[in-house]
Design brief:
Oligomer: single chain
Structural class: alpha/beta
Largest sheet: 13 strands, mixed
Number of helices: 17
Radius of gyration: 23 Å
Strand content: 15-25%
Length: about 550
């Protein structure tokens, strides 16, 4: 039953957001012929939307097709004349929707999108002091779905006076396949992201951006990608700040978290694991020749649709370590201090796992305390009674909400704070900030099922509409939520500008510091910034205590 649920998670990310970037119900933007910019590969023409200008579908690497399938990205070809950059490129191949005959997207997908304040009269390289900070967004979607064009970045660009880049990268079997014949190939999707960062470094000034102030930010699988880049020697110098939203190097799920019978989840896999899975996939596809060149030729000759099945896509959605891009498992690299010393924001949402639980309740209901207890036993084994004592069903509105609370704390809240603690221990002077998005009435993301008696609260991904206007929700933000959105945009872009999210007119965001300087490796870091609407909604909070992290720190993983 793991495949259907992961498919639902990936498809929610992949299909919930319209590719045009327009918010349902909002008036269409004013589109005019935009400025022409000379990139390092040729001229491109964008679209002016009044206060901001977009350049969509800009190639940052050659199409990874044919002989380039399952190879590290290579530079895109230069072009003559002015290339149209007025519409997004196709998204990278992702799983077909249930019942669909063909996969969604294209293998020719290594493109990015740039949003910038509209220049007057035209963009030109700026003196150092006038260059804008650059934010580079890596989308989520379980490494199986999503697209850079799903995220309309005009709020960050205009209000924050920044240049924003959103990126497509290879997904599923196309992005994370391994095979003995490929030797220790890098995770191709992560290599794509680093190629996009190299494009940003080469071209940021052409859009008025500062190549020495690049902030890498992302959510869920996007945040896990940033964790990988933080610990990747190949990413040195490609970014100067990092924001990880709902995903850290220490994130993991216990058995049964995504439904009864589902295995424990670790976001990264060893090179050997991936190669073993790849050899089995090759056998299933009939690519069993003795020679390595023949096997690869057979695999590269397979059609896109034959590879993009739910089974094969989901067999390869964990980036491999044990290669030049990721020599070491990111969790081990982080805890041992092998990470880039850049300012970091790490954050989670108050009710993270309600999204995953809510997706599964129709198939795996949790109606009674016995249902809840059964799930606890599968997930935590001998520790289940202790977990139940800490999260008794009677202290929650329903057993399903008790289960979601336990999973939120175990899988995301406390693992993120543990990652904070590891960074603080190994780099005690590094600017380090934490947040918890805590709007209990955040608009529900479009596509999530309604479950009576199971409010989503501040679930996984629910902060994204506060940063990107294009993320579709069941209702628009209200006035107090729009005010929170403005604050969040200010925080994110101030961090991109200076490495410090604080602004003169907003509640102060505290630095994370271990609570005791004498035991940095074991003491919790406090406090994090609560981000919620209304008076007092933005304030420091002790998330470590609120999410019972001392309890989870004592339990074996």
């Amino acid at each position: 039953m793991l495949f259907p649920l992961l498919c639902a998670v990936a498809l929610l990310a992949a299909t919930a957001v319209p590719a045009t970037g327009a918010q349902p119900g909002s008036p269409p933007s004013t589109r005019e012929s935009g400025a022409v910019v000379r990139t390092d590969h040729g001229l491109i023409r964008g679209v002016s939307h009044g206060a901001y200008t977009t350049f969509d579908g800009v190639p940052y690497a050659a199409p990874p097709t044919g002989r380039l399938r399952w190879r590290a990205p290579v530079p895109a070809a230069a072009w003559r004349g002015v290339r149209d950059a007025t519409a997004p490129a196709q998204r990278c191949v992702q799983m077909p929707a249930p019942g669909a005959a063909a996969a969604l997207g294209s293998e020719d997908c290594l493109y990015l999108n740039v949003t910038m304040p509209t220049p007057t009269p035209a963009p030109t390289p700026q003196p150092s002091g006038q260059k804008r900070p650059v934010l580079v967004w890596m989308h989520g979607g379980a490494f199986l779905g999503g697209s850079g064009s799903d995220y309309s970045a005009e709020q960050l660009a205009v209000r924050g006076d920044t240049v924003v880049v959103t990126v497509n990268y290879r997904l599923g079997i196309f992005g994370y396949f391994g095979h003995p014949a490929l030797d220790s190939a890098p995770p191709f999707g992560l290599a794509d992201q680093q190629a996009a960062l190299r494009w940003v470094r080469a071209n940021a000034e052409r859009f008025g951006g500062d190549p020495d102030r690049v902030t890498l930010f992302g959510e869920s699988a996007g945040a896990l990608s940033i964790c990988a880049h933080l610990t990747s020697p190949a990413a040195a110098g490609l970014f100067q700040r990092a924001v990880l939203q709902s995903g850290s190097c220490l994130m993991s799920f216990p058995r049964g978290a995504l439904g009864p019978g589902t295995p424990a989840y670790e976001p990264f896999a060893s090179q050997r694991e991936v190669q073993t899975a790849g050899a089995e996939a090759a056998r299933q596809l009939g690519c069993t020749a003795d020679g390595r060149d023949e096997v690869l030729a057979c695999l590269r000759g397979q059609s896109t649709d034959r590879l993009a099945t739910a089974q094969l896509m989901q067999s390869f959605n964990r980036p491999a370590f044990g290669n030049a891009l990721l020599p070491t498992a990111p969790d081990q690299a982080l805890t041992s201090g092998r990470f880039h010393r850049v300012p970091v924001i790490l954050g989670t949402n108050h009710d993270e796992m309600r999204m995953f639980v809510g997706l599964s309740l129709a198939v795996f209901p949790i109606r009674t305390e016995d249902d809840y207890r059964t799930r606890l036993v599968e997930a935590f084994g001998p520790a289940a009674p202790a977990v139940e004592a800490r999260y008794p069903a009677a202290e929650h509105p329903t057993p399903a909400l008790a289960w979601a609370a336990a999973l939120t704390d175990r899988s995301l809240a406390c693992t993120t704070l543990a990652a904070d603690r590891a960074i603080a221990a190994r780099a005690p002077g590094l600017p380090l900030y934490g947040y918890e998005f805590g709007d209990p009435d955040a608009p529900v993301l479009a596509g999530l099922p309604a479950n009576p008696g199971f409010p989503y609260g501040a679930a996984h991904g629910f902060e994204m509409p506060f940063l990107f206007s294009s993320v579709p929700t069941e209702r628009p933000l209200n006035d107090t939520q729009r005010a929170l959105s403005d604050r969040m945009v200010d925080y994110w872009t101030a961090f991109a500008r200076t490495g410090d999210p604080n602004t003169a007119d907003a509640p102060r965001w505290p630095l994370l510091r271990p609570s005791s300087p004498l035991a940095r490796s074991v003491r919790p870091v406090r406090p994090v910034q609560s981000l919620a609407p209304g008076p007092g909604g933005i304030r420091p909070v002790d998330a470590y205590s609120a999410h019972h992290c001392a309890f989870w720190d004592r339990l074996p993983r």
